[in-house]
Amino acid sequence: MESQRYMLGTGNLLHLENLSTISNLYRFALVLTKNALQAERLVGESVREVLYRGSGESARRIRWLIFQKVRQRALSQIANEETGDISSNEIVTALHALPEPSRSAMTLLCLESFSLQDLESLLDLSTQELGEALKAARSRLKHSLSLAQTPS
After folding, report:
1. Peptide bond before 99: cis, by omega within 30 degrees of 0?
2. 58 φ, ψ to 5°?
3. Burial tier of 133 (Cβ tally within 10 Å: 0-12, 13-18, 19+)
C-alpha cells in the first residue's frame, strides 16, 4: 500500500491508510488544542488543504503532511487565543501542561507511534534538540503525575 498514489479528481475513493489515521489526527489535535470542536475543525481543514493539492503523494507522505499541518494550525491557534481544558484524565492534563515542542514530540512518539526520525523531520528539530525535548517532557510528566498521585 505504501506505493499506492492518491490523486484527486480521478473518481477514485480516497482513504488515508485506514480510518484510524483520522482518529489519530483528532487525538493529536485534541491534545494540542484542549478543545474538541477546535480539534475537529483543525483536522478537517488540514485534511482538505493537503488533499486538495492532489500532488500524487504516497499515503505515508500524505499522513505526514496532514499531521504537520494540524500541528502548525494548532500552534498558531494556541498563540492567538486561550483554550479551555476539557480533560479529566491526569495523563492528558499533564501532556497539556508540557511546553512545545515537548508536547508534540511526546504525543506523537507515545500516542501515535512516530519514529524518532519522523519526529525530527515533522517538528523540524535536530537529533539533540529532540532528545532534550523528550528528556524534559519525561521529567515534567514524571513530576506532574507523581504530584497527582499524592493524597491531598
Report:
1. no
2. -70, 160
3. buried
pLDDT tens for the chain, 152 residues: list them.
333 444 443 333 345 445 677 888 888 888 888 888 888 988 888 888 888 776 677 777 888 888 888 888 888 776 665 443 333 457 778 888 899 999 999 888 877 778 899 899 999 999 999 999 999 999 998 888 776 555 55
> With respect to CATH, is domain 87-152 assigned 3.40.50.10490?
no
Residue closest to 47 by CA, chosen among 27, 24, 22, 71 = 22
Quickly list H helices, 1-58: 20-33, 36-52
Are 81 and 36 contacting, i.e. CB atoms less than 8 angstroms apart?
A: no
And the C-alpha cell for 148? 497527582
How far is the C-alpha of 33 from the C-alpha of 42, rounded, in Å? 9
Cell readout for 86 is 476539557
Please report, for the chain, the start and end positions of each structural domain, with discontinuous segments joined by +.
1-86, 87-152
